[in-house]
Amino acid sequence: MFSLRTLLGLCSLASAHALSYNTSKIQWGPCNETELPSEYPIECSRLPVPLDYTRPNASETLVLELVKVPATVKPSKGSILLNFGGPGLPARDDLVGALADRLLALSGRSYDLVAFDPRGTGNTLPTACFEPGYESNEFANDLLLGNQSDVQLGRLWARGTTEAEACLARQNETGSLISTAFVARDLISTVDALGEDGMLRYWGFSYGTTLGATVSAMFPDRIHRMVLDGQQNPHEYYHAQADFQEWTDSDKVFSAIFSGCVAAPSNCALATGNNATAADLEHAVWDLVDTLKYRPLALGSYIVDYSVLKGLLQASLYDSAGWPQLATWLNLLITKQYAVLEDLLTAAFPTDESTVLASLRTVEALRGIHCGDNDVRTEGLEGMMSVVERLYRTSRVMGDAAIGNYFACAQWRIEPRERYTGTFDIKTKNPVLFIGNTFDGHTPLASARNLSATFEGSVVLEVNGYGHSSLAVPSACTIRTTSAYWLDGTLPNEGVVCPSDAPLYSDVTWADVIAKVYGNDTGPGHKRTVPASPVSRSLFGPVLRLRSGESG
Ligand SMILES: *[C@@H]1O[C@H](CO)[C@@H](O)[C@H](O)[C@H]1NC(C)=O
Ligand SMILES: *[C@@H]1O[C@H](CO)[C@@H](O)[C@H](O)[C@H]1NC(C)=O
Ligand SMILES: *[C@@H]1O[C@H](CO)[C@@H](O)[C@H](O)[C@H]1NC(C)=O
Ligand SMILES: *[C@@H]1O[C@H](CO)[C@@H](O)[C@H](O)[C@H]1NC(C)=O
Ligand SMILES: *[C@@H]1O[C@H](CO)[C@@H](O)[C@H](O)[C@H]1NC(C)=O
Ligand SMILES: *[C@@H]1O[C@H](CO)[C@@H](O)[C@H](O)[C@H]1NC(C)=O
Ligand SMILES: *[C@@H]1O[C@H](CO)[C@@H](O)[C@H](O)[C@H]1NC(C)=O
Ligand SMILES: *[C@@H]1O[C@H](CO)[C@@H](O)[C@H](O)[C@H]1NC(C)=O
What is the pLDDT of residue 545? Predict the structure, then answer.
């Protein structure tokens, strides 16, 4: 096993030529600390890019707001551009917040990490089809799961019609300037402006892997290094009525909440003081979900119903670090300790107007981007019934999670100026590293294998853990493997599996694993508790409804 220090030494030699262009058009300066608070010495810049790449001679520009977390090992070997998925999530606040430590560690601390909020998100051509107030509240209140009741599907279909019409009326022009193909071009514009070696170094998570696959397909000769982590199936993303493959392993991850619990009862409230089996616990939780369908629970300003509880369960699949807290909440529900639960929910889900509206915008942004990219339209709810049945058969826990998205997309009426419609049979100039977790409830290993099969020279690294993307599984092996790839292009052998260093329901965090690899005094110079992965911020409505319970 190589040591990371050796690697760092080797690589400063290998990349001596990498920055020879030295013609950066980007002026880095301080960031707006109100907008982008960070404990890191971050830098910001504004980069004008063409607003509409299909009209190359037009003068209108779009300003990309860039943020950089500088490499801590100097001199920097160049920039890695990042996207954290959704689609719909702005990237800057995630990068400079909870993720910087991990991403620096996973890239040998030798690269500047750069991100911008992609079109359709944050302040960059935001998708805003509904006015704040009545319209937004109605939208939030209809963010229900497909199986909430036997009349729910019809309601969601009608809501999708309303949404598609509202977006066309309010966003026809800006909406058409939003697409993954355009964001791929924005990535290349950024590379050009950075003036390094003219090559793209890119790391995408979740939907960010579809963006990475797209930019690879459009600009295969510009790819230096690329990690696609938590791979989505881009064939389905662009051309299917739903992302069926995404939910392949969701029920296995869900069951692990309970098997992990009984294996570590001292850190899991659900297993404390009883001899319940994992199957008993899972059964009890499904009973609770069904009961809330008919008997929603009023807890202060919240109404905890089927969609809210199931939404929490769905969101919990992102990161097992949140499972002890989830188990506490479930135990309080089962044992009817409602006052305590109400206090915990109040602390966890602020209901102030701006938080609620910001969350609502991420749902709108997801649809604005995904629905425009997707090229299938379906007439009438009848045409979606087999889709719903297939989703329900695929996963009990996730099957009805994203029906509202698919129904909106089926009726979407804004056509993007450019949509990527080509294949993913690709030979990139340098090979891509795919990463898939053994148990990922959103982007299964099967999708990484699916895409790697047509990316010549690529390799899939498997990480044996639970959760969404490698960021959810603390692993020294992952740090060593991805650092080696970034630093000198070394790919693991196909079939390599990195173990998790954080057993389920343990207290082991990324900070511990990073300290183990790097020592505890060489980092960016501060220690703090790292919250659950923000890639995990839920894009599903029901958790949002919990936040908006008061205003709605
Ligand atoms: C790159 O440009 C900067 C500022 O423009 C300058 O200080 C530096 O010496 C240049 N480096 C090289 C290798 O030319
Ligand atoms: C910083 O951001 C805040 C919040 O978006 C904004 O109100 C303020 O005007 C910004 N300050 C500057 C100097 O741009
Ligand atoms: C754009 O400008 C270039 C150079 O000025 C010109 O050659 C080209 O024909 C123009 N293209 C269009 C579509 O107007
Ligand atoms: C939307 O915009 C396109 C061109 O940008 C235009 O052709 C179309 O008529 C517009 N549709 C509506 C309903 O305004
Ligand atoms: C759990 O099982 C043990 C051994 O069978 C028994 O002694 C104990 O009373 C049980 N505890 C509960 C809470 O049922
Ligand atoms: C949908 O709800 C019905 C009735 O409560 C239940 O029998 C079925 O298992 C549910 N299916 C899914 C996928 O949630
Ligand atoms: C990848 O997935 C797509 C969509 O599910 C499928 O059509 C295609 O055959 C798969 N490709 C491979 C190589 O498995
Ligand atoms: C750093 O590690 C040393 C031993 O390796 C330990 O004694 C010390 O407490 C650690 N410091 C922090 C801040 O974790």
Answer: 54
Rounded-to-integer distance, Cα 98 and Cα 60, Å: 35
pLDDT at 506: 96
Angle, CA of 210, 370 and 136, to the nearest 5°: 140
Which two tokens mark 9? Answer: 């030494």
Residue minimizing CA distance to atom 1 of ligand 8: 520
CA of 57 to the centre of ligand 3 (A): 6
How high is the pLDDT of residue 359?
A: 84
How far apart are the C-alpha atoms of 495 and 503, rounded to whole Å?
Answer: 22
Cα of 161 vs centre of ligand 4, distance in Å, is: 18
Distance 262 CA to ligand 5 centre (A): 14
Angle between helices 385-394 and 403-410 (to 10 degrees): 150
Report the relative pairing of strands 223-229 and 433-439 from DSSP bridges.
parallel
Which ligand has the minimum distance to the alpha carbon of residue 520?
8
The ligand whose atoms approach the alpha carbon of 450 most closely is 7
Is the beta carbon of 335 within 6 A of some atom in ligand 5? Answer: no
Ligand 6 atom closest to residue 392's alpha carbon, by position in its atom list: 13
Model pLDDT, residue 349 = 84
**Ligand lying closest to the C-alpha of residue 37:** 2
Distance CA 312, CA 550 (A): 18
**pLDDT at position 60, please?**
95
Series of mean pLDDT values for 10-residue runs along the chain (552 residues): 34 37 84 91 96 92 97 96 93 91 97 97 92 89 94 97 97 96 98 96 97 98 98 98 98 98 96 94 98 95 92 94 96 96 88 82 93 98 98 98 97 98 98 98 97 98 97 97 98 97 96 92 44 42 45 22
C-alpha Rg value of the chain to the nearest Å:
23
Q: Which ligand is nearest to the CA of 213?
A: 7
| Nearest protein Cα to ligand 7, atom 1 | 450
Neighbours of 36 (CB within 10 A): 16
Choose one of 272, 275, 281, 331 to mutate for the ligand 5 pocket test, by most ligand atoms within 8 angstroms of C-beta. 275
**DSSP H or E stretch at residue 526:** none
Domain locations along the chain? 4-125+176-242+419-523, 134-170+354-410, 247-351+536-546
CA of 425 to the centre of ligand 7 (A): 11
Q: What are phi and psi of 43, to 5 degrees?
A: -130, 155
Q: How far is the CA of 147 from the centre of ligand 6 (A)?
A: 6
pLDDT of residue 20: 43
Q: Does any ligand 4 atom lie closer than 6 A to the CB of residue 277? A: no
Give the count of beta carbons closer than 10 Å to the beta carbon of residue 523.
Answer: 17
Q: Domain 4-125+176-242+419-523 - what CATH class?
A: alpha beta
Say which residue the tokens 């300290």 belong to.
515
